[in-house]
Amino acid sequence: MSVNMFTTLSKKLGITDVKVVNKAGEILRLIDIKNLAIPLNGTSKLVAALDLAATSLKFHLDRNQAINLAGVGKKNYLTTLQLLDDILNLSPNLSIKDICLQLGCMNVTSEASNIIKRYEEIYDKHNTVDCRKPMFLVAAVFVACKKTKTRIDQTKLVELAKVKRSMLKRITLAMEMLSLEPVEEESKQQKTLLEMVEDKYNAEVETPNKRLRSHDQESQDENYASWRQKILANAAAAIALRD
């Protein structure tokens, strides 16, 4: 690739930091070494490398300008960019604070952190979801902005999420509903759990043949009373140990 073309493109994108240009050169070499089949070549490939380098080093870049310089369709460009980003593992680990800074909404940092924390507690118990991914963090920031009526750039929001707008919307709705749900008091949760256990027990001791129940009614009542007392004792012991 022509060094002059590389320099010209970086200037048009407003990239003056040598670190970004050098990083773009490394990305180009990685693409060639890995022999990645991407629908970009020539100028578009150079622009993509500069775009990825700027993003990985947290250098601001006008994405629309990059797409215009690349000379390819927006969807094609963004899809390829995401593919390269995933394969080469270039994206930095963004934080809630980083996202708020880029969106100009530092006032919701604390609220967004609380939202993502609760989301993790509910949906990440079995490590099936990585809530540190940009799409979840961005969704939390968006919900926080809605709650505080803070205006942000919607286009920039989607870019930071690195997923389709429809996917981001689904995650946002889930977080929004979760943030509106009242947290039940622990005593109420314990009572509900105990009632469920008792209901299960009652369902199990009921038999289709009511005559058997009438014959053994007294014995079953005694067994139930003993069982219930044991359950309550265990629950009380667990609470005492926790406190």
From TrEMBL:
Where in this chain does the record put each ORC6 first cyclin-like domain? 9-90
Does the keyword Translocase belong to this entry?
no
Q: Which GO terms describe its biological process?
A: DNA replication initiation
- Tell where it localizes: Nucleus
Q: Name one GO molecular function term.
A: DNA binding
Cellular component GO terms held in the UniProt record: nuclear origin of replication recognition complex
Nucleus as a keyword?
yes
Q: Keywords for this entry?
A: DNA replication, DNA-binding, Nucleus
Q: Which CDD domains match?
A: Orc6_mid
Domain ORC6 second cyclin-like residues, every copy: 94-177
InterPro entries tied to this protein: ORC6_cyclin-like_2nd, ORC6_cyclin_first, ORC6_met/pln
Coiled-coil zones: none
* Protein family: Belongs to the ORC6 family.
Name of this chain's protein: Origin recognition complex subunit 6
Q: Which organism is it from?
A: Strigamia maritima (European centipede)
